[in-house]
């Protein structure tokens, strides 16, 4: 049998993997069934197969988490996407002068997978491959805005909201209010929340095909003025659309 022009069982397995990712990487069978509208026996069968292949793991409390077999696949995909993103990020640096980054949701953190450095001697040195917390960074909050509140609560429940600086959001209500604002205005700000002296503006990549990604520009607060942020937002949104178009093209090849 097929669904949406493909193989039904494969669609179900991918739906379950995406559900687990949206809910912060850990779910119960009941949560998967509720989110996917699949019968419990079907969810059990698919999860058992994913566990056997290493793409899911069953924990002692009978919940399920994403498996280690996904990691090498993600690494190869990140390398491919990162290389293709370089020209788009370089254009942002040309227009704005500050460091541009592309990040993906990696479990309960954001991982930088591509970067174009600022032309200034004094610039940000966030290296490709570095992982940062979601609640204290621009890219992280842009990624959180793509999740539902249930998934955000799950992430907060497991990792908490540690204060990286005096400006970090450290309460659930403050974070959810910030995420709601990001969803409405279309961009996220890091106001020295991860590192004193650093400001960042980020936008999510939004598409039915491309999810869990964000593009940003960051720099010293002395240069990342409100005027520069206002100029950066439409450029970042244009860059996000271009990145989505390029990635959809890679998927369809």
From TrEMBL:
Keywords, in A-Z order: DNA-binding, Glycerol metabolism, Plasmid, Transcription, Transcription regulation
GO BP field: glycerol metabolic process; negative regulation of DNA-templated transcription
PROSITE patterns: HTH_ICLR, ICLR_ED
Superkingdom of the source species: Bacteria
Pfam families to which the protein is assigned, alphabetical: HTH_IclR, IclR_C
SUPFAM superfamilies recorded: GAF domain-like, Winged helix' DNA-binding domain
Domain HTH iclR-type: start-end pairs: 7-68
Record-linked InterPro entries: GAF-like_dom_sf (IPR029016), HTH_MetabolicPath_Reg (IPR050707), Tscrpt_reg_IclR_C (IPR014757), Tscrpt_reg_IclR_N (IPR005471), WH-like_DNA-bd_sf (IPR036388), WH_DNA-bd_sf (IPR036390)
Residues of the IclR-ED domain: 69-249
Protein name as annotated: Glycerol operon regulatory protein
């Amino acid at each position: 049998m097929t669904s949406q022009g493909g193989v039904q069982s494969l669609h179900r397995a991918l739906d379950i993997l995406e559900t687990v990712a949206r809910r912060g990487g850990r779910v119960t069978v009941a949560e998967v069934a509720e989110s996917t509208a699949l019968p419990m026996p079907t969810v059990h069968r698919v999860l058992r197969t994913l566990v056997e292949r290493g793409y899911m793991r069953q924990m002692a409390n009978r919940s399920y988490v994403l498996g280690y077999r996904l990691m090498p696949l993600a690494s190869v995909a990140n390398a491919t996407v990162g290389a293709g993103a370089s020209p788009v990020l370089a254009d942002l640096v040309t227009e704005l002068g500050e460091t541009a980054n592309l990040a993906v949701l990696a479990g309960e953190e954001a991982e930088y997978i591509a970067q174009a450095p600022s032309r200034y001697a004094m610039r940000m040195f966030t290296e490709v491959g570095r992982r940062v917390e979601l609640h204290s960074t621009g890219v992280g909050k842009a990624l959180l805005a793509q999740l539902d509140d249930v998934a955000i609560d799950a992430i907060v429940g497991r990792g908490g909201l540690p204060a990286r600086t005096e400006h970090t959001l450290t309460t659930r209500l403050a974070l959810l209010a910030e995420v709601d604002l990001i969803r409405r205005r279309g961009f996220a700000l890091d106001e020295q929340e991860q590192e004193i002296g650093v400001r960042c503006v980020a936008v999510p990549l939004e598409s039915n095909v491309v999810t869990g990604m964000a593009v940003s520009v960051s720099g010293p607060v002395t240069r990342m003025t409100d005027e520069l942020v206002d100029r950066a937002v439409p450029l970042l949104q244009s860059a996000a659309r271009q990145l989505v178009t390029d990635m959809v093209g890679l998927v369809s090849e």
